[in-house]
Amino acid sequence: MVSPGVWIASLIDGLLLGFVYGLAAMGLTLIWGVMRVINLAHGPIIALGMFGVYLLFAHAGVNPYLGLLVIALMGLLFGILVYAIAVHRVLNAPHLSTLLATFSVNMMIIGTGTALFTTTPRNIDISLGRLTIGPVVLLGTRLLAALAAVLITGGLYLFLYRTTLGKMVRAVASNRAAAELMGIPSTRVLAFSFGLGTMLAAAAGGLIATFFPFTILSGGTYELKSFVICVLGGLGNPTGALLGGLILGALEGLIPIALPVSWVPVIEFLLFVLLLLLRPQGLLGER
Amino acid sequence: MTRWMKTGGILVVLAMLAACAAPTPPAPTATPAGPAQPAAQPSPTPAASPTPAVKKIVLGFTASQTGKLTKESKEQVQGLQLWLEDLQRAGGIRLPDGTVLQVELKFYDDESTKERVQQLYVKLINEDKADFLISPYSSGLADAAAVIAEQYGKIMITTGAASDSTYEKGYQHIFQIYTPASRYLTGAIDFLKKMDPNARRIAIVYENEKFSTDVVNAAKPYAESQGFEVVLFEGYETGTTDFGPFINKIMAARPDAIIGGGHFQDGSTLAKQLFEKKVPVKMIALLVAPAVPEFAQLGDAAVGVIGPSQWEPGARYSPDSAKAAGLPWYGPTVDQFVSAYKAKYGYEPGYHAAGGYAAGLVLQKAIEEAGSVETEKVKAALEKMDLMTFYGRIRFDTGKAHGKQIGHEMVYLQWRKDASGNLIRPIIWPEAAQAAKPIYPLSR
User: Fold this and answer.
1) In this predicted complex, what is the ipTM?
2) Shortest Cα distance from A253 to chain B (angstroms)?
3) Would you call B397 an interface residue with chain A, using a CB distance cutoff of 8 Å?
4) Number of C-beta neighbours around residue B56 at 10 A
């Protein structure tokens, strides 16, 4: 018989991870919400975030959490670049074009990354100690990652609802033509929004890198999780993404207690399909 | 809604494409292990020398000079070539009747595929008239070659191949150099029993994949036969990065020791997370990962972790340890092999290279003992063989699993910090090969 302590410990472990999953998914959902583009380069960008933090840490001795700020900024710029080169021209073409365009970016990042870094797993060797409360052992790195995810989410909301640029993003998202008529430079806003999405992905990657090992291919796992999370929470809805992340994290924590670990993806994707069938707008609906 | 679902469908398909299409990494060192040292020059047959008569024998094999196995295969071939060089320097194999045998290596590139292996071994036997065969690298390729060798009744020494199943098919001519997969972790269980008579509970957690499950499926009954209780026996998926829930489960089972693992990535992750959560166990022994130098990246989390390896340059097999075990010694010492390899190739040999050298050495000894190159006589010599070399003990099963290696033991290394804080991995088991006192129990 499994003691309740194990359930609680696993639930908390799962929820802490869930915040970071949610952050990654937010990047995907934001881009969808603003420009109706599914960014298939999402996974590799998460991996780039991991490598960015790793390289700064391993070669320049930069604290990973400080490095995260640098990587977030670079993620923003990289996203703007990707938008300008790969996305902008096909933005109004059918969905398949943007899918293929971002998929090409995906392949390019993975190819280049494999050539540069090989697929030998990397580790960021950092420990922030642990906090033991009864049966629950909380790791410093994961607590901080969850906290960072919450702060970034809060920052995103403040930005979207309290700043002029944020309001422009929302305006373009809700009606691009009307926004343009109001004099909003939609191309620049779109480019910026894409950058914002990749920034979130890169930041999530950087946080994950502080506790899991990774290769340039590791982003794929989190990309798939992000899709499930977005559908759970409602595509285009950042709060939904956070909620979806927490649900997924909790499932990943709890299922293995009762069942062999192999069942986790089965149940996750079953949920994905059920939601698509029964509530395609997600738990919280589109924003 | 329909549009949504269409998009959703495309999305899932493409995401899966993205997951599947991830390219396999280009082999880091694609330099083919070209036959830089041409196989032994056909020995200048001294036509009229009264004695000794010089005879040429052909040793055939395939090397994976292209494809995914190039790196390991290259090491193995280099080991074999070094053996040949040493043999030539010694003047060849001398038979009791005074005949001197000069060995010629004949090999082709198998492109790391089974199909090529089978074509090429037929060619080696029929066209090149190979007298004896050495296996290609890897269990899969060696298994493919074994079928051909057995069909033609040729002796093949397999190296770089740990799978047990090849020897459970009733073959009579295949002899294995590597310790089979089924014994990868049994030594760790012996170690635990020796170190701590009070240890009772073992948790076995492993990657859900053929090699690792083979290993643990043999380790579990072995542990039970040694009086241990297996309190957790569960697999995890290849590519698992979050062992959190798993570790909670392990903690609830309160084991004394954890054994298992799989390959590098999952094994090192598991080790790291076990350390972070301060799981209070006395021993951790994992497959593959601890034997890889990059395991040192784990820092403190690596300390104390035990891993099996076929052979290490620090192995302490010696004529003395052979004497202590009551076995004859044969071939170079560990130091001689390591320094000769370093001198020739510029770096320390790993177990792939050692296995290549040992394959040649074992065949050489068997031919000497048989006093003949006749297959049946050499086969009988191999079946009788029980000796110690730089690579460890060599003895073959002659029963149901004919040809399976039963003498050679894995060595177990354990990570620790040296005086200046660098991570090193001396051998701690078996006792005959011990280079440092083991850390037991783990202090966590």
Assistant:
1) 0.77
2) 5
3) no
4) 14
